[in-house]
Amino acid sequence: MDFALSAEQQEYRDGARAIAVTRLLPEYRGRERAGRIEPELRRELGALGLIAPEIPEALGGRGMDRVTSGAVTEEIGRGDINVAYLQVVGSLVAQILAGNATPDLAREWVPRICSGEEIVGIGLTEPHAGSDAGMPRLTAKRDGDDWVLDGVKSLSFGRDAAAVVVFARTGPSEARGKDISAFLVPLDLPGVTREPFSDMGTTAVGRGAAHFDGVRVPAGHLLGEAGSGFTQVMQGFDFSRALIGLQCVGCAQQTVDETWEHVSTRQAFDRPLSTNQGVAFPLAEAETLLTAARLLCYHTLWLKDAGLPHTSQAAMSKWWAPKTAYDVITQCLLLHGQYGYRTELPVQQRLRDVLGLQIGDGTAQIMKLVIARQRLGRELAP
Fold this sequence. Notes:
Layout: H1 7-24, H2 28-34, H3 39-47, H4 66-79, H5 81-100, H6 103-114, E1 120-123, E2 139-143, E3 146-155, E4 163-169, E5 180-186, E6 192-196, E7 208-218, E8 222-223, H7 229-265, E9 267-268, E10 271-272, H8 277-305, H9 311-335, H10 338-341, H11 347-356, H12 364-376
Parallel strand pairs: 1-4
Antiparallel strand pairs: 2-3, 3-7, 4-5, 5-8, 6-7, 9-10
Helix pairs in contact: 1-4, 4-5, 4-7, 4-8, 5-6, 5-7, 7-8, 7-9, 8-9, 9-11, 9-12
C-alpha cells in the first residue's frame, strides 16, 4: 500500500487547505450565528472541484478517486466542520443519483450538486425513530404517472436544500428494510412544508424536518427499482462514514495545532506551559490518536477505490473517529483553561459540532452492531 498522495491528489488537498485557512476558518463562528452556509461560498467550493470530486466528469465532477474526496473533506473540516458536511452530503447524494437515477434525472441534478448551485439533502431517518431507518412511516403509493408521498423525514440543510432523496415504504411488507424505495423529491412541490430544528451545535447545517402531505412526485423520480431503496442507501453510507470520520479528524487536528501554539506561548510560573509534561504529553497522545483515526478512514476509502469489502472499516471510522475527535477537542479546551471555555475562541463550538456527528448518520452503538454482524453474521450478533 502506497501512503503517498499523487501530485494531483496533493494539488486538491492543498487547494482545500488554502480555502479552509483564508475563507472558512475566519468566519466559522459567524456561520454559526447566521445559521447557514453562504450560497456564494458553496458555489466557490464547487468551482474549485471541492464538492463530490469523485463524480465522473460527464456529470459535473472531476473523476477523482475516493481518497481524494477524503483529503478534501479533512482539509475543509479544518476550517469549518459544517462546510465539510456540505461536501460529505454532496458526495453521498451525488453518488446515489449517479448510480440509480434515470440518465435524464442524473444529468439534471448531479452537476448542480457538484457545482454548488444546489444542495440535495438525504432523508433516511424520521423524527419518531432515529436509528431505526429500516421501518419508515413515510409511504409512497403509485397513482398513474406519479407517486404520492405522505409522512415526514429528518434532513440536514433543511432550510437551504432544493431537493431531498427520501426513503419510503412502497409495498405491503412490514419487515424491516423490505419494500422501501428511494425518490428524489424537489422541496418546492405542493404539499411540502419545512420544520427547523433547534440544535446545540452544527447550526450552520440547519437540520430540520420535511413534511409531505399528499406530495405528487413524477414516476421518473424513483431511484433504481421499487423496493430496493434501503440497500441503495446502505451502500452509499459505507463511503460517507469514512468521510465523516475525516471531517471530524480535520476539525480536531486544527484544534490541536492551535493548542500547541497556545501552550508554547502562554507563560505560567515564569516558563511556557509546554515545558510541563502534564501539558505536552496529552497533546502527544492526541497527535497519536488522530494519526490512527486518519489512517483508518483513508484505508476505508482505499478499499472502496479498490473495489474491496469495507463495511466494517467504514463503521469503525464512523464511531471511533468522531469520538476520538471529541475527546481530543475536550482535552484541548482544558489546556486553554478559562480561555477555552469562552465563546471568543472556536474550541467550544468545535466541541458541540463534533458531538452531533457522534449521533447523526449512525450512532456508535449502530456502528458496533454493523461490525459485529460482519464478523458473526446476523444469527450470532446482538
